[in-house]
Amino acid sequence: MDGDGFIQVQDLTKVYSLGSVEVVALRNATLSVDRGQFVGVTGTSGSGKSTLMNLLGGLDTPSSGSIRVDGRRISDLSKAELALFRRHTVGMIFQSFNLVASYSALENVAFPLLFAGVAKKERARRAAELLNLVDLGARLNHRPTELSGGEQQRVAIARALANQPQILLADEPTGNLDSKTSEQIVRLLANLRAERRLTIVMISHEEALLREFADRMVYLQDGAVVSQEVVRDGP
Questions:
Q1: DSSP labels for 149-191?
Q2: 31 assigned to some structural domain
Q3: Fewest CB atoms within 10 A around its CB: which of 17, 113, 154, 177?
Q4: Is residue 143, in this structure, part of any structural domain at all?
Q5: For 165-183, what is each residue's pLDDT tens digit?
Q6: How far apart are CA 58 and CA 52, in angstroms?
Q7: What CA–CA distance (Å, rounded) separates 92 from 86?
């Protein structure tokens, strides 16, 4: 695949102040992700993986450096513009699922569509379609406590897809799952990438699992990108 630099990260640095102490969570990170690629990011605890993911998703802003998505410099967007970016361009999946306990699977997936101004009937239709896509069509009315960990993560994936994002960011999505379920979840992400023309960035400490599905690996250490490796040709 010809490189297009759909996501371009240049000299990205994030410094947190803890009282009088400054902690450098990310230092001069530079990387590029092509449209449609599945990029795996790995490294030990404290290497800067989650910080990078939060910056890519517009949940935090960098101390210096830049992030461009499809040519747009998102690192300079206002809070309102970042909210729109998160709503329409990126979908995020987390280790802890982050589902609303009192909502059914259908209601959890439909929830982001409420803020996008989608009518109630259409929200339900789209949510049911997405739950069918992740093989949970028979569990629409089940609440999170009635679902296994793998099923909860599938609901979270369906919710992340609700607003038809171009980019899917997965932050340790298999961290609370057993090895068999973990492989099923990452395989599902890889299949969705192909079916929906998604660009995926997934972080995980499970390097072997990432290498099984990712096109490229990025290795972080002490907040810096120390190496990158092409695993297979992208789509």
A1: HHHHHHHHHHHHTTT--SEEEEESTTTTS-HHHHHHHHHHHHH
A2: no
A3: 17
A4: yes
A5: 999 999 999 999 999 999 9
A6: 10
A7: 9
The span from the CA of 102 to the CA of 73, in Å, is 38
**How far is the C-alpha of 103 from the C-alpha of 172, rounded, in Å?**
23
Note the pLDDT tens digit of each residue in 126-136.
999 999 999 99
Residues 6+ apart with CB under 8 A from 227: 218, 219
pLDDT surpassing 70 at residue 57: yes
Instruction: Dig out the tokens for 20 from the structure.
Output: 């009088």
Enter the pTM of the model: 0.92
Structural domain includes residue 116: yes
SS (H, E, C) 111-142: HHHHHCCCCHHHHHHHHHHHHHHCCCHHHCCC
- If one counts the domains in the chain, the total is 1
Which range marks the domain in which residue 145 is found? 102-155
- Residue 214 DSSP label: -
